[in-house]
Amino acid sequence: MFNLHYRLERNAIGFVVAILVVASIGGFVEIAPLFTIDETVEKAPDMRVYTPLEVAGRNIYIREGCYACHSQMIRTLRDEVERYGPYSLAVESQYDHPMLWGSKRTGPDLARVGGKYSNDWHVAHLNNPRDVVPESNMPAYRWMSEKLLRTKDLGGHLAALRDVGLPYTDEMIANASNDAIGQANPDTDLAAGVATRYGDKTYVALFDADLSKVTEMDALVAYLQVVGRLTEVAHQLPQDEVE
């Protein structure tokens, strides 16, 4: 075996051919499953896209590096399912650009955090994590409650996501700014447009309990409340494949 390797190292052309063969095998193993993706990805008729406010919150989540400490992928292992909830399905990530599966858990997995806690809990946790989880080493993000959310360019964000395949309509893009404000102000006329464009089950709420402004705290909490809830298919399928 070692003699073959030594001979290859002395033969430049043979060595290049060997590299190409090995790289081709690796590439085939990675690419081949994509030919059956229509058969392997689950169907989710109730799947919806992120609202503009949720998109903004997801962007903040990425900006602050939350994905570095929190994964969003529950594996098919019994202890993970019992701790976090139904294991993650491929279809749940089809509208995630970029995906935030992650691999490191300094904090818990967040794939099923949507709806698990109240808005007040999330605000308290983000303002000072130790107030609700004494052993937490997560940094505080209390300044988000004071920082106004930039909403004017959210239409551009939706348009960019449409360019990579997400089914945002012209109406969604044109009303992105108003929909972001409306989702965080349930008692205004703008809130009705959110339900019309994104569905009656869209969570419209006063996320940070402040009527006077829409902040980055509103956006981040709105995103956390929808993680794992763009579709309910994972909660409907039998979880009989856990190991």
TrEMBL record:
Gene3D superfamilies reported in the protein's UniProt record: 6.10.250.2250, Cytochrome c-like domain (1.10.760.10)
GO MF annotations in UniProt: electron transfer activity; heme binding; metal ion binding
Domain Cytochrome c positions: 52-228
Annotated PROSITE patterns: CYTC
InterPro entries: Cyt_c-like_dom, Cyt_c-like_dom_sf, Cyt_c_oxidase_monohaem-su/FixO
Record field: transmembrane: 12-35
Record Pfam families: FixO (PF02433)
Keywords in alphabetical order: Heme, Iron, Membrane, Metal-binding, Transmembrane, Transmembrane helix
UniProt xrefs under NCBIfam families: ccoO, PRK14487.1
Full protein name: Cytochrome-c oxidase, cbb3-type subunit II
Organism: Phyllobacterium brassicacearum
